[in-house]
Amino acid sequence: DALPIFRGEGKKIVSLLTAEKMHQLWQRSIDDFTDNLVFCRIYDDKGEQIAGRLRMYEGKEISLGTAFSTLNFKNYFTGWKTELYLRTGVFDETADKKKVIYLWTAFTVIILMLSSTLLASKAVLRQAKLNRLKNDFIATVTHELKTPLASMRVLVDTLLEGSYNDQKQATEYLQLISKENKRLTGLIDNFLTFSRMERNKQAFDLRPTSSADIAKDAIYAIKTKFAQGNCDFIAHIPDSLPKIRADHDAMVTVLVNLLDNAYKYSGENKQIELTLYQQESHICFKVKDNGKGMHPRVTRKIFDRFYQEDSRLSRSAEGCGLGLSIVKFITDAHKGTIEVQSKPDKGSEFTVIIPTA
Fold first, then answer.
1. Eight-class DSSP state of 9
2. Percent of the chain surpassing pLDDT 90
3. 3 state SS of 340
């Protein structure tokens, strides 16, 4: 039952309550006064506790220390007193909370320092890798440019001095000069394309284009090289294929690079095949060879710029590792994909897949 509460303004009110009701009234008053830190107990003139029972705090029974203050009733309830207590461990808990905050702060600072160190280490390693890559690139480019220039110079000097037997030999020298000139021109074109790629200034003129015409122009560009040596080249180019949305010259560059790689990395008895076919809403350009092939770990890296499985300057195959990176760049720009299937000594198969117009 609710206890009666009496209020008066300048009036004296007498309330007749049983001892039990009085104790409940004191207890309710204490409940309104105390909180989770400070507690109050009331003792009567006989020293018996009549109010101030302990409460639960966070699921645990509260433990009290010694009273930090005692208040005596003077005018009323003579002999009665009130004791004030602090909950035991309140300062320890505050200190523990600060410890937790300090620990978390220290942990956060350590994590930030480790992260900064890791990022700095990655930046340093990246810079070292770039420097090494640049040095290798300069050495490779110097070698690749110097070789055809030296060959042409020797041949030109020979012709100027008249050190040849007949017109047939002179024609052979001129053909060799033409071959080295084309090789040098191809290298320079790759460097220029790579430079535009680095500056993101490689623009493509995308328009509906015949995939068959792209393949035929690529074959025409590479036929002189294929005519030299023992090379068996087969092309399957259906005329009924739908058009693709592409930059004609850029796609010719893609096929020329793939066909040139097939020639370079095949043995003496070269067997190279170019096939065009439709796969749902895409046109596939597949270049297959019987060359030395590659390990799976190599196929994952061949599209990286300047990557070469054999990085020695004395390697037999020319090039500076830009061809396939250019192929990948152009293919991506056409929203296409390129797939590679290769096994050591089993040849390689590159398939460029371009959406139809």
1. S
2. 20
3. strand
pLDDT tens for 32-55 read 666 666 777 888 888 888 887 665
C-alpha to C-alpha distance for 214 and 246, rounded to whole angstroms: 10
Distance CA(306)–CA(127), nearest Å, equals: 16
What are the DSSP calls for 64-119, one per residue?
B-S-SEEEE--SSSTT-EEEEEEBTTHHHHHHHHHHHHHHHHHHHHHHHHHHHHHH
Q: Which of 249, 209, 217 is nearest to 235 (CA)?
A: 217
Backbone phi, then psi, for 234, in 5-degree steps? -130, 135
- Mean pLDDT over the full length of the chain: 79
Q: Could you read off the pLDDT of 52-83 as tens digits, one per residue?
A: 766 555 555 556 667 778 888 777 677 888 88
User: Rounded to 10 degrees, what is the CA torsion of 129, 135, 138, 144?
Assistant: -90
Work out the pLDDT band at 351, boundaries 50, 70, 90: very high
- State the helix-helix crossing angle for 211-227 and 248-264, rounded to 10 degrees: 30
- In the numeric block, which tokens belong to residue 70? 């005692």
> What interhelical angle do 323-333 and 167-198 show, nearest 10?
50
Rounded CA-CA distance 69/84 in Å is 5
Q: Which residues contact residue 127 at a Cβ distance below 8 angstroms, ignoring those fewer than 6 apart?
A: none
* DSSP label of 356: B
For residue 249, which amino acid is it? D
Is there a contact between 50 and 44 (Cβ–Cβ < 8 Å)? Answer: yes
E strand or H helix at 353? strand 348-355
Determine the residue type at 29. S
Angle at CA of residue 349, ends 353 and 139, nearest 5°: 100
d(CA 335, CA 349): 20
Q: Return the SS3 of 40.
A: strand
Amino acid letter, residue 106? A
Angle at 237 between CA 231 and CA 241, to 5 degrees: 160
Alpha-carbon distance of 274 to 113, in angstroms, equals: 55
